[in-house]
């Protein structure tokens, strides 16, 4: 017999924009199997979408919260008045959560906490791990939204706002669902992964009966306990990263860092306003490799940023020589509408950009070739992505899907996507590896 669906009451106050917010929240809750309760008394929890435009609207919002508390007890407050959490909590300290306008995700999370969703596999259109567009064996795990940096070539903070870290127990619960659904590799993504938890001041959360701090180390450590590959993307070389390198050395998470350095000339990095631009990055990379020699570092760079001189460009090539990065992509600078960098003086002409891009790619190709050649004869863990009549195609721990290389296991037609196997590497080119399966 099906259990009755959880029922959520809604009191929507204020203008049409607030009404649209209410509609979006309820649409999402309906899609998750919740029902809209006609009254607060008959609901499992109540959302009050407040208005904070005029004093009279604030008074009406506070009264509605009081009524919902009296009639139901489980009250989630959102909307314009939610920006002033203190004035709400002073009068109604028992509300479960308070968020501002458009914070749909936070409201949905608060509903999940108050009244967990029920998944009925025979009825629900959406599986508990959500609808994914990636193959079954790997998935992206988003840990935060927005960014506190203000890189001059980027408009993401103006579109998505400042950093908002997802509650760590939510991230871990999502990861668990993905693993239960068959995912063998989790790609941690965000705009600034190393900054995870800065906005919540590394709030304590409860995870499996233990109190954990919401920071990069605790997050990656808990993900590492799930028995799948965990790969970190969009990392900046902040001190928080130093703490996770030992987890890589211990094999808890993959020895892989995707760090978009973008440039190496101090003058250009300053003009770009890049984070972690403290001139000690080479020392840091060396220290990481001392702890975890298998570490793969992938990065992207921009050539032709406004004001980039031949000397700046050569500084970057020299830096690459010293850094010995494993995987590197390069873009020619293009102005993005609304970016501060568009107004910088001394734009680089297209011909010079093309010429620098070609020199950059050839320079890094030689570095990558040498680093790949060092893998010949080594044993590598390989996750299989696809199998065809010629054999299996997978990736090593140093290869993220779509952006890095492949490992070809010719003739291995009995493997299947998601298998994790060991291979002895027999051949390498600039980007890909060829190997032989090591049978245990
Ligand atoms: S480039 Fe990345 S770090 Fe810089 S502002 Fe944009 S999202 Fe933030």
TrEMBL record:
<keyword id="KW-0408">Iron</keyword>
<feature type="binding site">
    <location>
        <position position="15"/>
    </location>
    <ligand>
        <name>[4Fe-4S] cluster 1</name>
    </ligand>
</feature>
<feature type="binding site">
    <location>
        <position position="154"/>
    </location>
    <ligand>
        <name>[4Fe-4S] cluster 2</name>
    </ligand>
</feature>
<dbReference type="InterPro" id="IPR006638">
    <property type="entry name" value="Elp3/MiaA/NifB-like_rSAM"/>
</dbReference>
<keyword id="KW-0479">Metal-binding</keyword>
<keyword id="KW-0963">Cytoplasm</keyword>
<dbReference type="InterPro" id="IPR002792">
    <property type="entry name" value="TRAM_dom"/>
</dbReference>
<dbReference type="GO" id="GO:0035599">
    <property type="term" value="F:aspartic acid methylthiotransferase activity"/>
</dbReference>
<feature type="domain" description="Radical SAM core">
    <location>
        <begin position="133"/>
        <end position="370"/>
    </location>
</feature>
<dbReference type="GO" id="GO:0006400">
    <property type="term" value="P:tRNA modification"/>
</dbReference>
<feature type="domain" description="MTTase N-terminal">
    <location>
        <begin position="6"/>
        <end position="116"/>
    </location>
</feature>
<keyword id="KW-0689">Ribosomal protein</keyword>
<dbReference type="Pfam" id="PF04055">
    <property type="entry name" value="Radical_SAM"/>
</dbReference>
<dbReference type="InterPro" id="IPR023404">
    <property type="entry name" value="rSAM_horseshoe"/>
</dbReference>
<keyword id="KW-0687">Ribonucleoprotein</keyword>
<dbReference type="GO" id="GO:0005840">
    <property type="term" value="C:ribosome"/>
</dbReference>
<dbReference type="GO" id="GO:0103039">
    <property type="term" value="F:protein methylthiotransferase activity"/>
</dbReference>
<dbReference type="InterPro" id="IPR038135">
    <property type="entry name" value="Methylthiotransferase_N_sf"/>
</dbReference>
<feature type="binding site">
    <location>
        <position position="51"/>
    </location>
    <ligand>
        <name>[4Fe-4S] cluster 1</name>
    </ligand>
</feature>
<feature type="binding site">
    <location>
        <position position="151"/>
    </location>
    <ligand>
        <name>[4Fe-4S] cluster 2</name>
    </ligand>
</feature>
<dbReference type="InterPro" id="IPR007197">
    <property type="entry name" value="rSAM"/>
</dbReference>
<feature type="binding site">
    <location>
        <position position="80"/>
    </location>
    <ligand>
        <name>[4Fe-4S] cluster 1</name>
    </ligand>
</feature>
<dbReference type="GO" id="GO:0046872">
    <property type="term" value="F:metal ion binding"/>
</dbReference>
<dbReference type="InterPro" id="IPR005840">
    <property type="entry name" value="Ribosomal_uS12_MeSTrfase_RimO"/>
</dbReference>
<dbReference type="GO" id="GO:0005829">
    <property type="term" value="C:cytosol"/>
</dbReference>
<dbReference type="InterPro" id="IPR005839">
    <property type="entry name" value="Methylthiotransferase"/>
</dbReference>
<keyword id="KW-0808">Transferase</keyword>
<keyword id="KW-0004">4Fe-4S</keyword>
<dbReference type="InterPro" id="IPR020612">
    <property type="entry name" value="Methylthiotransferase_CS"/>
</dbReference>
<dbReference type="InterPro" id="IPR012340">
    <property type="entry name" value="NA-bd_OB-fold"/>
</dbReference>
<feature type="binding site">
    <location>
        <position position="147"/>
    </location>
    <ligand>
        <name>[4Fe-4S] cluster 2</name>
    </ligand>
</feature>
<dbReference type="Pfam" id="PF00919">
    <property type="entry name" value="UPF0004"/>
</dbReference>
<dbReference type="Pfam" id="PF18693">
    <property type="entry name" value="TRAM_2"/>
</dbReference>
<dbReference type="InterPro" id="IPR058240">
    <property type="entry name" value="rSAM_sf"/>
</dbReference>
<comment type="similarity">
    <text>Belongs to the methylthiotransferase family. RimO subfamily.</text>
</comment>
<keyword id="KW-0949">S-adenosyl-L-methionine</keyword>
<dbReference type="InterPro" id="IPR013848">
    <property type="entry name" value="Methylthiotransferase_N"/>
</dbReference>
<comment type="function">
    <text>Catalyzes the methylthiolation of an aspartic acid residue of ribosomal protein uS12.</text>
</comment>
<feature type="domain" description="TRAM">
    <location>
        <begin position="373"/>
        <end position="439"/>
    </location>
</feature>
<keyword id="KW-0411">Iron-sulfur</keyword>
<protein>
    <recommendedName>
        <fullName>Ribosomal protein uS12 methylthiotransferase RimO</fullName>
        <ecNumber>2.8.4.4</ecNumber>
    </recommendedName>
</protein>
<dbReference type="GO" id="GO:0051539">
    <property type="term" value="F:4 iron, 4 sulfur cluster binding"/>
</dbReference>
């Amino acid at each position: 017999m099906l259990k009755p669906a959880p029922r959520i009451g809604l009191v929507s106050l204020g203008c049409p924009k607030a009404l649209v917010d209410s509609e979006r929240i309820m649409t999402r809750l309906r899609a998750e199997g919740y029902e809209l309760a006609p009254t607060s008394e008959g609901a499992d929890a109540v959302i009050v979408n407040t208005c904070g435009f005029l004093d009279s609207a604030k008074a009406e919002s506070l009264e509605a919260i009081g009524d919902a508390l009296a009639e139901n007890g489980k009250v989630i407050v959102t909307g314009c008045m939610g920006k002033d959490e203190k004035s709400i909590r002073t009068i109604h300290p028992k509300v479960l959560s308070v968020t501002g306008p458009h914070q749909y995700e936070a409201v949905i999370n608060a509903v999940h906490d108050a009244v967990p969703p029920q998944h009925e596999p025979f009825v629900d259109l959406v599986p508990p791990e959500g609808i994914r567009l990636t193959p079954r064996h790997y998935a992206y795990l988003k840990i935060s939204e927005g960014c506190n940096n203000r890189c001059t070539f980027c408009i993401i903070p103006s579109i998505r706002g400042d950093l908002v870290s997802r509650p760590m127990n939510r991230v871990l619960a999502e990861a668990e669902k993905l693993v239960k659904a068959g995912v063998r590799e989790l790609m941690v993504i965000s705009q600034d992964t190393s900054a995870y938890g800065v906005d919540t001041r590394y709030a304590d959360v409860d995870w499996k009966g233990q109190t954990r701090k919401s920071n990069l180390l605790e997050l990656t450590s808990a993900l590492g306990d799930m028995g799948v590959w965990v790969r970190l993307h969009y990392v900046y070389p902040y001190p928080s990263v130093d703490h996770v390198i030992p987890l890589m050395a211990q094999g808890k998470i993959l020895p892989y860092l995707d760090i978009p350095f973008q440039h190496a000339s101090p003058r250009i990095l300053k003009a770009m306003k890049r984070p972690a631009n403290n001139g000690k990055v080479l020392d840091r990379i060396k220290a990481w490799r001392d702890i975890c020699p298998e570490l793969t570092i992938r990065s992207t760079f921009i050539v032709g940023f406004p004001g980039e001189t031949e000397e700046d460009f050569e500084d970057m090539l020299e830096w690459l020589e010293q850094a010995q990065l494993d995987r590197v992509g390069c873009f020619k600078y293009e102005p993005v509408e609304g970016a501060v960098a568009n107004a910088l003086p001394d734009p680089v002409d297209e011909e010079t950009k093309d010429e620098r891009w070609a020199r950059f790619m050839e320079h890094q190709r030689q570095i990558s070739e040498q680093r790949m050649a060092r893998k010949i004869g080594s044993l590598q863990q390989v996750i299989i992505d696809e199998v065809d009549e010629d054999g299996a195609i997978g990736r090593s721990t140093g290869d993220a899907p779509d952006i890095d290389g492949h490992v070809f296991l010719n003739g291995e037609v009995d493997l299947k996507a998601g298998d994790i196997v060991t291979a002895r590497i027999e051949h390498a080119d600039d980007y890909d590896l060829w190997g032989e399966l090591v049978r245990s």
